[in-house]
Design a protein that fits this description.
It is a single chain. By secondary structure, the chain is of the alpha+beta class. It is built from 11 helices and 7 strands. The strands form 2 sheets. It has a 4-stranded antiparallel sheet. The chain has a 3-stranded antiparallel sheet with strand order 4-3-6, with no helix packed on it. Strand 3 and strand 4 form a beta hairpin. The longest helix is centred in the last third of the chain and has 19 residues. The chain is globular and about 50 Å long.
């Protein structure tokens, strides 16, 4: 899987809210519309068209989309945990005066940060062949400029570089959805017994089987939203045994079959080929 990727959102259809820790961190950019949300400490955040911010999707709650003419579109620059970890290992964070409890966002007026962000975004959007290290260095430069201007983003970067046992399992599942995975392979990947892992997940009031199901459905939902892949192909790509099993699981979760869901999405937004 790529360490840096661009994900688009272009719909007004509300998403089902699953409050599992989400191993997805990066930069969220709003193109049209407006969004309100709440951070873990109760701080309220808002983005308007043209704004972007460093974010951790697992920390955002009470997410509300607002549209002027039924139009909402956004992009997320998804950054792998390893990049945050390597960035912190090279950072002299003693040079930053950090104040907690602040929400920070950027706009076109933040010229240096904006230009770096757009450079990375344009490279990914164009699908140019570029050495991964070159792209990674651009992300390091962007993160450095962001915290140089707004140091209170540094704790968020630190949290993005750390995973709990539950998040490690989710990270493992997300990277291996196409495989035949189970709790034994997940436990082995993070260096503990299956029994210990079951207890840790139970303490968070979740189960491996349910995380796996939700993650597969979530990936399938994204594929249905953003691609024109055949439903059978999506089923296999998301780890379902066959299209019938996929359809049954998807409808149980969303109350729509994959075909019905895609039809509804196409009525709300135009999916690019």
């Amino acid at each position: 899987m790529p360490l840096i990727k661009l994900q688009r959102f272009q719909t007004t259809l509300n998403r089902r809210n699953e409050r599992y820790p989400v191993v997805q961190n990066g930069i969220f950019s709003l193109i049209t519309g407006e969004i309100d949300f709440t951070l873990p400490d109760g701080t309220k955040g808002m983005l308007q068209a043209g704004d972007f911010t460093l974010y951790s999707s697992g920390e955002i709650s009470d997410f509300q989309m607002k549209t002027s003419e039924g139009d909402f579109s956004a992009e997320a620059l998804i950054i792998d945990i390893s990049i945050f970890q390597n960035f912190l290992s090279q950072l002299d964070d003693d040079a930053f005066q950090i104040k907690s409890g602040q929400y920070a966002y950027f706009s076109k007026q933040d010229t240096c940060v904006y230009r770096l962000f757009m450079q990375i975004r344009d490279i990914l959007d164009s699908e140019l062949t570029i050495h991964p290290m070159t792209l990674t260095q651009l992300v390091y430069a962007l993160l450095n400029e962001m915290i140089a201007q707004k140091p209170h983003l540094l704790p968020l970067i630190r949290r993005a570089a750390e995973l709990s046992s539950t998040q490690k399992v989710i990270h493992y599942i997300e990277k291996n959805l196409e495989q035949d995975i189970n709790i034994d392979s997940a436990a082995q990947s993070i260096g503990m017994s299956a029994a210990t892992l079951k207890r840790k997940l139970a303490s968070d009031k979740i189960s491996f089987a349910n995380i796996l199901k939700v993650k597969r459905i979530t990936k399938a939902t994204t594929e249905l939203r953003l691609t024109n892949k055949a439903i059978t192909q999506i089923a296999y790509d998301c780890g379902f045994k066959n299209a019938a099993h996929f359809s049954t699981a998807f409808k149980a979760h969303t109350e729509l079959t994959p075909k019905e869901f895609r039809v509804k999405i196409k009525k709300c937004s135009q999916i690019k080929p």
